[in-house]
């Protein structure tokens, strides 16, 4: 569907229309594209989907009052422009709104579009998931393989009345497997995912065999006693840790409103001295990369934690204006609401703490956390969650799965407790990190 | 203006679909967000389009187009049939889509139709709710109030002969508070929502929820981290409602059962809990946020007893799972909107009331935890493990609340937990929320009275 419409020119029409209706400033955000997906149930394809991605959101400003309107159909774009002006007139002044961003110098980021993803046919996606399913099914005890593959290609455009007029084509694709295993009364599950902007980043047999192996091994999971353990966190599950740190805790909006435990902590030590965490929207080929953000501001590379010290928050134009800093190009956007603040690629670097796998796992008794779906408490930074998938480490060896275990630690204590990281980084859904070892984590068993 | 969708169904059938369904939907919504007294967002939106499903050779094709153009929808019908054929290449299980046709029309009776209520009235409500929370205490640091109303017109037709049109109106308001004192920040959340118009947020409870949440956030400032390990516990209705939804409801969804992802597979008729435990899913309860008259497939909504006197009695079905398991749809086929296919979802899911008073339950606890409020929860239905997060709680000693506790995680297993419920209160309460599954969010209500659990594992910080 890409190329069928000129999104930028629709955006310019929308901005003109809003201005002629009385908007002093106006902005259009548009998206157009297509997405296909194939869903797997019990090892077979259940549903093949194809959807057209389409939407337009319009922000208008009248006398310091902001109004917003959206439509899913681009043929309703001018109607949305009119409604947004009407909403601005009905709204109340926002004293902290300092205006829409001026045009910036945008340097195109390489590697955001893969024609193979854009042209991927459902029949090819069916072959991909077939490979994933056979790899997973070959593992002992596997009774059911679920998962999905999706491929989307879309163009986004941002146009505003200050002269911003940008568009960019991007692709993204992912394949995940969720596997159940059973052996008599014992049951377990396993998970794995590949994702990225390029089709070559998807390895279906690897995803299937990893998830299958995980489920199979976890069949023999044991309960553990409550205590304090060293914990190695797998890159697969860094999202609730460093992903949360940047996208939620260092989020300029959460900081500005005092919702985040990181508010007021710039310059303080929040992590082990060897640890640096960055947000980078400019990384070539990065899953979270873009040449400009949801308001048309150029993306950049922002150090969040530098050698253990909190350096920056991430901002859009509104939060930056209110906190008296520059936007970091982190306006996150969907066509149906005002810009929020979100991370691009979150990267953990700790060169001084790098260790071989042998050294990383060299603990007497510890936990390897493969997956948790919990997240920290934004207000106080405490993180208690379930060891969804995890293993016991005994005398340097990953020995057996653990079940019914949960962990609890403050996110800052966790970051300060990092005493080693693996040598190999892995990118999972825009988070790029090696495995990380934390000295001491409270882990509760059922007894 | 509702498009004629019957022709699209006929087209799918003529192209070889064994079963086909066409849904058209137009949703108008208003969303307001007030933060610390400032109106940050006044947003009105229109979502309109077709969602088309075709069933060929045991597999599904699903396609979506936006807008109300019937010729674009006709192309989407062709696409759906083509997708189903492609998908059926990796499908050996064959079944016939069956079921009775369903016909009817239904409209939400909104006393104050959101389309008739002036925007200034909605703004005033949202701003005043925000003000009421800020006035509670100086330690209230950040007050967020959101108001959302949606009017959804829907039509669905399928090859079984189903022809349903409905108009669903929902209104919801939510408050999130952050309180701060001496380096400590805590939060609390309250929401009110239901089927209906602006009247849903004009109740005493709705108007007082800003103050209520603000007080709770301030109270949490003096709370301690929860202890870790197994405890006897009392769960408040909010938490127990989310608990029954997460820990049990998801495992009763027939698509999870068919996918071999539910620990409850093959256990209908088995005892899963004590006799005092009764669990139901009922979309017909008037005015609740998860209520509806017809589901997204056009099947009529009805009440299901999932657990009766401790025995597992029923799963929840949509047309597909009912066809595969030789039964009829229970009216649980729901989709976020036209751009998603209907899957098996809960509606208003709750523990039926028992005969205990709350004070009687406290008297039963010598050393335990009273867990209150809910942040979120999730479950691994294959393994039968669940986790949910309470907003806070109290340490109980000899029946008395002795120490306030912060956010706690509670974990357990589906097959054990209902056997550990030793008392069910009389005070059934409902709370609105959104449940996510396969990337789709639908409005639901969770409900429960206070319950006493003999043993539950807390994942605390100490």
Give an account of the 3D structure:
The complex is a heterodimer of chains A (447) and B (462). Chain A contains ten helices and 22 strands. With 447 residues, chain A is an alpha+beta fold. Chain A has two domains: 7-216, PmbA/TldD superfamily (PmbA/TldD fold), CATH 3.30.2290; 222-447, no CATH class. In chain A, strands 7, 14, 15, 16, 17, 18, 19 and 22 form an eight-stranded mixed sheet that branches. In chain A, a hairpin with a 4-residue loop joins strand 4 and strand 5 (165-183). In chain A, helix 1 (7-20) packs parallel to helix 2 (77-90) and helix 4 (122-137) packs parallel to helix 5 (204-218). The radius of gyration of chain A is 24 Å and the shape is globular. The mean pLDDT of chain A is 96. Chain B is α+β, with helices and mostly antiparallel strands. Chain B folds into two domains: 6-220, 2-Layer Sandwich (PmbA/TldD fold), CATH 3.30.2290; 229-459, no CATH class. Chain B has helices at residues 6-14, 70-87, 119-134, 204-220, 237-249, 254-258, 319-324, 358-363, 414-417; strands spanning 19-35, 38-56, 59-66, 103-107, 140-158, 163-181, 184-195, 229-235, 279-281, 304-308, 311-312, 333-334, 343-344, 348-351, 367-372, 376-380, 385-390, 392-397, 400-405, 408-413, 421-424, 429-437, 440-448, 451-459. In chain B, helix 1 packs parallel to helix 2 and helix 3 runs parallel beside helix 4. The chains are: A alpha+beta (447), B alpha+beta (462). Chains A and B meet through strand 1, strand 2, strand 3, helix 2 and helix 4 of A and strand 2, strand 3, helix 2, helix 3 and strand 5 of B. Strand 3 (65-71) of chain A pairs parallel with strand 2 of chain B, so a sheet runs across the interface.
